[in-house]
Amino acid sequence: MRVLLAVLMLWLGMTAVFAAAPGESDWAASESGRVRLVAATTSVGQAAELRLGVQFQLQPGWKIYWRSPGDAGYPPRLDWAGSANLGEPAIRWPAPHRFVLAGLQNHGYVGEVVLPLDVPVITPGQPVAARLAVDFLACSQICVPQKAELALDLPAGAALPSEAAHVISRFAALVPGDGIRHGLALERPETFGEGDGAVLRLSLAASEPLTEPDAFVEAEEVAGFGQPRVTLSSDRRSALLEIPVTPGTVQKPLAGQTLRVTVTDGLRSLETSVTPLAMPAPPPTVNPPETGLWGMLAVALLGGLILNLMPCVLPVLSIKLLGILGHGGGERGHVRASFIASAAGIFVSFLALAALAIAVKQAGQAVGWGIQFQQPGFLAVMVVLLALFAANLWGAFEIPLPGWLMNAGGGGRHHTVLGHFLSGAFATVLATPCSAPFLGTAIGFALARGPVEIIAIFAALGLGMAAPFLAVALWPDAALRLPRPGRWMITVRKLLGLALAATGVWLLSVLAAQAGIAVALVSGGAVAGAVLILALKPRLPPSSRSAVMACVAALAGLAVAAPFHGGEAARGSADTGSVAWVAFDASAIPRLVGEGKVVFVDVTADWCITCKVNKAAVIERGPVAKRLGAAQTVAMKADWTRPDDGIARYLASFGRYGIPFNAVYGPAAPDGIALPELLSDSDVLGALDRAAGVGAGR
User: Fold this and answer.
1) What phi and psi, each to the nearest 5 degrees, are found at residue 137?
2) E strands present in 475-585
3) pLDDT tens digit string along 256-271?
4) Residue 51 β-bridge partners
5) Positive or negative, the Cα torsion across 358, 362, 368, 370?
6) CA dihedral 270, 275, 279, 281 (to 10 degrees)
7) How far is CA 473 from CA 335, 340, 356, 368, 485, in A?
8) To which H or E segment does residue 647 belong?
9) Cα 290 vs. chain centroid, distance in angstroms?
């Protein structure tokens, strides 16, 4: 009797396990797994819509397909013939996985998946009879078409949650939405290339680091698409996805077409429709695979050395020159220490710039060479410093350092060494608007990679810029042969102070362009007042000095804070000359080239001295200005004075992160010809000829 009772209890338990619970159909099984129809409620209730689900449980190694299966296969097909009191269901597809076999791309599911269904109820409150024929393809080493007949009846009554409600909800959460709740966003889509060489380029931003982002593009009447090439930022919070078309599938050009894009990253996803803009194809990478880090370090050393000769550095050469002149007839050891200090100031400043670039990239922001000049607050600080340096050279005041600092290491000479260190650092900061030959290549290499490469390249740039100072430190007799300091130094100091003041006025003009003339006037007035008070300070009684210094601090604070409250200034066209500039529009370039025109792009900024030199010496004078003013030539100006993500992306497409930058497009050069940083008539005219498809001797 005990044995019989145990068998009976076992049979009853198995019956309870295998019997379909309310809201669930029976399983239909095969060699690939099993499938059933489930509902989120046990009864119909009074709702006008039901949540159902087709649940697949697949055996290991088997998969089924997504709504867009890829190069082969087909998705599950649902036939609701024979159902009662049901409208046409809408399938909600969870984000797929990518499978690659023998070069074929497939999209689908493995393990378990539920396809959530939103099903209208024709007569709410009345029983529902769901009859579903599922036709699907299951694949492992072989593919087996399968069909399952499923039946589910839901009675009238209160709509209580079923045992399957949780699993339906779990997979409903995997259905891609707009990406907001997952912190994902797609920026402006672009396309370049034609025919089988066409590529869709997507910029993906994420609030949390990305793991393995993927993208699936659906456009049946346009083209098929392959697996994206993914380039992650160093902080993994942004990615560039370049998705090639599948050869032989292109029916229309991608530009202007509506494409359905699903992006996945682990359990995160988004789905949206995009209309890509046509862009010029990026040129071949400036540093081929065989040019590794060591080769690029040599390029960075050369770029840093040439940076000493660039126009951006010339205004601050006064500080360097004054330091050199002060060594005439001095001591060899002191000369060596001073020049090593200047070199150290340059080198440490480049390491600080590297740390800043790494921090900006990890914060998910755009990074570039010289972009700090896009910030009004930074400009105001630089104006204050330049004014103080100039006033110091004019003899208005001296700024003593704290006694503990002057005496550290032995006496007043430490003050001189520290001054040279600070002059090297200051020269480096003011040199950052320049993009010297080879420097742009090195910066592009570094900023496209991780922290190690950024630090190494920036260190090499600093070492290159500091090389002349290190050379004098090795051979100090070169400085000792200069005339001894005397009264003639007073005149030199005044002239060099004038150069610094002129640099400050230039930065004030940049500040006016960014934050408004009124803000620049307030800042300039505050700086002038601070300098005047400092000049008068030695003549004031001791009782008034604390009040004077408070006034100085208030004025300096006003100069720094004013740009943050000045609002946006209306920017008109301040360009003069014979070139009729139009606003930069990357999406218009392919259309203009298709019309047979030549397009010249000038990426410039008010704070870029080298840009102004190029414009004054080459672009807006002589034969180049004449060619740019021709009817078949369009001159586009991309103004990067203030931050602009579109311009930053355009520069990055050429592997550049600083300016000046110029490119020429035409019927014979639809992908663009990048020009060197320092322009010449022959460079520009030759590129215009090549782009137009005419001989170089034109």
Assistant:
1) -110, 120
2) 581-583
3) 999 999 999 988 999 9
4) 118
5) negative
6) 60
7) 7, 6, 29, 32, 20
8) helix 645-653
9) 26
